[in-house]
Known about the structure:
Layout: H1 8-51, E1 55-56, H2 57-60, E2 76-83, E3 89-91, E4 101-110, E5 114-124, E6 142-149, E7 162-163, E8 177-189, E9 194-195, H3 213-249, H4 263-278, H5 283-289
Parallel strand pairs: 1-2, 3-7, 5-8
Antiparallel strand pairs: 2-4, 2-6, 3-4, 4-5, 6-8, 8-9
Amino acid sequence: MFFRGLSFARIALTLGIALSVSAVAIVLGMWQYGRYEVRVEARDAYRVAVEEPAAPLNDVVPADAEDLPADAEWRTVTVTGVFEPDTTTVLRGRPIDSTAAWQYLAWLDTEDGRSVLVSVGWVPQPGPNEDPEAPEYTNGTATVTGVIRAWEEDDGKEATDSVSRITPAQVPQPHGDVSPGYLMIREYCDADQCTATVVGDEVPLPELTLGSHLSYAWQWWVFAALAPTGAVLLLRRDANEIAAAARVSTPGAAEPAPGQASAATARKPASARRKKRRSGPSDEEIEDAL
Length: 290
């Protein structure tokens, strides 16, 4: 029998633990693979969206939309309106190219009565004795070209003169109805000129990578396959040790290996020789006979 000498409880417990570990590893592998699929879908959507030409905002996000359409993120759109300077907010804690940065956010009131939040540019974070560069908006109507992004999840922090997430819950409320999503500015045109941003430099688009989720998934699945195998090998080793101990404890059960003599066999020739030497008459017996 493969596991001779082991109790049924021992075998069942070891295999049960191994199968439980294997099941958990399979679930974790599926979870990592799911995250990989999400990354793939996001990357593919990004590639499709950035290839599309710039379109009016209303064509991509309808005026009555309460949520951002699934295919709207990463699209480049144009919108015309007037900025609300008193809603300008600083987004902190977002380094850009390894540089501590301030990103400026402000509401743009469009001609159709809704308000769009715009990331109007970034500047290096000023020192304690430096005056930061502030946005300067035109007094009239401006046309903004930007890339649509979805709202970020609110982290629950109370916003003061700065925010930690780009979400309506933290920025000042605008005059019009809030349009879903925000814009990363790529061009700002007023009556006099067109520039890339309102202030500083444009915020670069994030780099979408697939990460290590697929490799992690395969690692978990390999571990799931190895767990039962390891349990079988462990049980087999223990069974062999029990069988070896039983042979040692049984007299005559173990035979010496070919070419090797046991200790008793090695001592036998010397003992026999001593008996052979003592089998003849002693010196005293020989003298009496004479």
